[in-house]
Amino acid sequence: KLFFTDYGNAAKVERCDMDGMNRTWIVDSKIEQPTALALDLINKYVYWVDIYLDSVEVVDYQGRKRHTIIKGRQIRHLCGLAVFENYLYTVNSDNLSILRINRYNGTDVQALASLDNAKEIRVYQKRTQTAVRSHACEEDPYGMPGGCSHICLLSSSYKARTCRCRTGFILGSDGRSCK
User: Fold this and answer.
1) Spatial separation of the C-alpha atoms in residues 17 and 36, rounded to whole Å
2) Tell me: the pLDDT tens digits for 103-145?
3) Across-strand partners of 110?
4) Which domain holds residue 162?
5) Which residue, 91, 109, 125, sits at the end of a domain?
6) Burial of residue 37 (number of CB atoms within 10 Å: 0-12, 13-18, 19+)
7) Which of 106, 131, 147, 168 allows an S-S link to 69, with CB 3.0 to 4.6 Å?
């Protein structure tokens, strides 16, 4: 799945398949400017920062179990969001500090460090990487991902895929080759 935020005409948090199909709103009320987003892949939770409401909130992948982690002036101007173990990590764009927020109670907020011009944050740790299983976009014997001549996108499951073409090409009738 692909998760993303949008604060155009109607602010929302959405999800879709990697090929763009099955687009679903998972949060579309009491939300103004969702910017940063992070996933808890193990427990299947979506966290986001709303910079207009000065809040960090969470829902499950279906948009249920919504609650506010932290709200208020203390977390103004956040950008970037990452989740690891019991904490959320984010960047305060006002003073360029990295903040650590307890994701279960929201009361334990600590400034860890300051960085020049930081706008995003990522956690790279072996435990945050999911195990790779075989999938529909693996290279075929001819070196083509999922048998697609240009781009292979996972679809509704890791066993299904959709082929797409680079700009200027159209997908052939076989659904795999680009012309």
Assistant:
1) 20
2) 998 888 888 888 777 778 888 877 666 677 789 999 989 889 9
3) 100
4) 132-178
5) 125
6) middle
7) 106
